[in-house]
Amino acid sequence: MIRSMLALTAAALLFSCTKTNSPSDATATSSANRDAKSNHTKVIGFSQIGAESAWRSAETKSIQEEAKKRGYDLRFSDAQQKQENQIKALRTFIAQKVDAIVLAPVVETGWEPVLREAKAANIPVILVDRGITTSDPSLYTTLIASDFVNEGRMAGDWLAKKTGGKAKVVELQGTPGAAPANDRKAGFAEVAQKNPGLQIIKSQTGEFTRAKGKEVMEAFLKSDGPNIQAVYAHNDDMALGAVQAIEESGRKPGKDILIVSVDGTKDAFQAMADGKMNAVVECNPLLGPAVFDAVDKISGGSQVEKKVVVQDKTYDQTEAAQALPTRQY
């Protein structure tokens, strides 16, 4: 009898020591193990050009917030406008064996060596908002961007319609060698060729910054002030710098000199509502959802389109005040 009771007690103790988890706890533990073994948190490297404009900052925020929302570990690098910093960041991401790289390239050329390293490491590269020039398109998986040439055309079309195809224009270009600078210039030039009265009398880089845009516009006003009838800026920040320069020169931006730009930032909409800018072609920077849709597809083994084109729209002063409260950047 005593032996039976001791045996039962030992069995009970053994059961109590081994059965510590409920069925739900066991499922959670099993799931966690599977996550650790096969579904680890995906690590994404993001090389951003910098923070030269409100548009750029909005793009960064969109990608960072979407990564957090979807549970990705995002490694962020700010290149401060330098390609060499981006190449260094990409090599760091490759060494870290990230699951994918998101790259906003500062210029179009010079990427092949480092992208070949990424390809050799089987790391997909997603280009955002700017393309690259390469002899091997397989070096990147997809490009998510606006049609910059068409943005230039849209800005030119608006100005041609507004002026009857006759205006002396100064152009504030973006960073030399950057895809949006090259393409927005080309698109606007197409419209100017079709409208001989639309003359670009001066064209110089403002480096996509407000301070440089102001500086270049001041120089334009000193050399050609009385002749300038319109400004075409490759982004809003340069246009807003031009607004400051024109005001300080004693002329009225938006009236004495028409201003059209590209981006569609909240500051530009405010300037239009105030009558100081005339039109903007929207270039949407809120690319986070599209970027991580692509990452999700790639992670799941699905094919993605080689280029995802973001649709753009032209806004003018008549729409600015109504649209302003809805602007997210």
Quick structural gist:
With 329 residues, the chain is of the alpha/beta class. It has helices at 2-18, 23-37, 54-70, 83-95, 112-120, 148-163, 179-194, 210-224, 236-248, 266-273, 288-299, 317-323; strands spanning 43-48, 73-78, 100-103, 125-128, 142-146, 167-173, 198-205, 230-233, 258-263, 279-282, 307-310, 314-316. Strand 3, helix 5 and strand 4 (125-128) form a beta-alpha-beta unit.
Oligomer: single chain
Name the CATH superfamily classification of the largest domain. Response regulator
Q: Which ranges are low-confidence, i.e. pLDDT below 50, for 5 or more consecutive residues?
A: 1-38
First-last Cα distance: 82 Å
State the CATH architecture of the largest domain: 3-Layer(aba) Sandwich
The tally of domains stands at: 2
Shape estimate: elongated
Order of helices and strands: HHEHEHEHEEHEHEHEHEHEHEEH
Decide which structural class fits the backbone: alpha/beta
Count of alpha and pi helical runs: 12
Highest-level CATH class of the largest domain: Alpha Beta
In what order do the strands lie side by side in the largest sheet? 2-1-3-4-5-11
